[in-house]
Specification:
By secondary structure, this protein is α+β, with helices and mostly antiparallel strands. The chain has a domain of about 55 residues. About 30% of the residues lie in helices and about 10% in strands. A 3-stranded antiparallel β-sheet has the order 1-3-2. The chain is rod-shaped, with a radius of gyration of 30 Å. It starts with a helix and ends in a 49-residue tail after the last helix.
């Protein structure tokens, strides 16, 4: 690595790096991001916090997250499958599986 690369401050940080730098948890930062108390940029699947926010948090501290402030983004919501509803998606009996005539019972002697 060149000497001048160590002197340059990054323009943004990932959430984990940001949490280590400011002594907080990743969960707290993600809750603050989900309620727009902390700005972030998404690059692919990564949440990147810009240097402007880093300076603001270093100056003012982390924003207070009130008690009971639940994360708004809870992930995918499971929907009921239409297969489980009665009378929906029932298969028509196929010609191969059509019921055959019952076999006569064998007589015991």
């Amino acid at each position: 690595m060149r000497d001048y690369e160590n002197d340059i401050e990054p323009r943004a940080r990932r959430v984990r790096e940001f949490a280590r730098r400011h002594g907080t948890s990743v969960t707290t930062l993600k809750r603050a991001i989900s309620h727009d108390l902390l700005k972030c940029v998404y690059i692919g699947r990564y949440q990147i916090i810009p240097a402007v926010e880093d300076e603001r948090v270093a100056r003012d501290g982390l924003p207070n997250i009130p008690r009971g402030y639940v994360r708004q983004t809870t992930g995918p919501i499971p929907l009921p499958s239409p297969v489980h509803k009665k009378g929906f998606h029932k298969r028509a009996p196929s010609a191969k599986k059509a019921k055959a005539a019952p076999r006569p019972k064998a007589k015991r002697t």
